[in-house]
Structure formats: C-alpha cells, structure tokens
Design a protein that fits this description.
This protein has helices at 4-10, 78-95, 119-133; strands spanning 14-20, 39-43, 54-55, 60-61, 64-65, 68-69, 102-107. By secondary structure, the chain is α/β, with parallel strands linked by helices. The strands form two sheets. Strands 6-5-2-1-7 form a five-stranded mixed sheet, sandwiched between helices. A two-stranded antiparallel ribbon has the order 3-4.
Length: 134
C-alpha cells in the first residue's frame, strides 16, 4: 500500500517527516525513509523523555535521524529539534535553484497530556498576559 509521501515523491516532491511516527517501527520497511520520505527526524514509540529522548518502555533512545537512533539531540527539547529541522528543510528548498515542490508531514508530540514547557515559552505567555490586562 502506498502512502501519501510515496505519491508525492513519485510526483517529484521532496519529502520530510518530523515528529511522531506511529505507522510502524517494528521493521525497517515500515520506517519513514521506506515509506516515501527523503528525511525523517522523530520518534517511533510513546512515553519518551522530551529532553533525553529515552524510551523507558523498551529501554532505548528514541530519537531517530533518518533510519538510525541519534544521541545528537540529547538535552534539547524534542519539539524544538523538530521545528528546527522543518525550518532547515524549508530553507534548503527555498535555496534550491530548481524550486522543486516539497511535502512536510509534521506530527506534533504535545497532543496527549501536559508536558514540560521551555522557560522561553512561559516568558512569552507572561508578557502577553501583561499586555492583555493593559
């Protein structure tokens, strides 16, 4: 069965998957790079730390860069790494002289339960709340 990324790639699009990948990780054929994506940065399991990317349910690091686990992002807030990869991908496509079309699948991890928040986000919300009261 083809994915939307398979179809986009066949049509000449550059493709990126970022974030949560819960469409199969038990074999390499189900990983994003084998499902139509040129690049992938994300995680395959649930219950991973937002900063260490350690998955306590199966005792592993669960931050995949391409098709391999990566410790490069240890200590970096996961969604920040995902946003940075997305912006980097868009920037690279903008510099592409051929102006190839691109497709991005960005799956946020923050949709299930309360999660840790970066202090910079809290500061922005605080400033906004002050302006709303003026």
């Amino acid at each position: 069965m083809s994915t939307v990324a398979d179809k986009m790639k066949q049509a000449g699009y550059k493709t990126l998957a970022v974030g949560k990948w819960h469409a199969g990780g038990h074999s390499s054929q189900h990983l994003p790079l084998n499902r139509g994506f040129d690049e992938f940065l994300g995680f395959l399991n649930g219950h991973t730390s937002h900063f260490t990317h350690y998955c306590n349910t199966i005792d592993c690091v669960d931050m995949m860069d391409g098709d391999k686990p990566s410790w490069k992002y240890f200590g970096q807030y996961g969604d920040e790494a995902f946003y940075n990869r997305t912006f980097d991908f868009i920037s690279r496509q903008a510099k592409n002289k051929n102006r190839d079309p691109f497709f991005i699948y960005h799956s946020f991890r923050e949709d299930f339960k309360p999660s840790p928040v970066l202090l910079s986000f809290v500061a922005v919300l605080f400033v906004l709340s002050i302006f709303q009261t003026l």
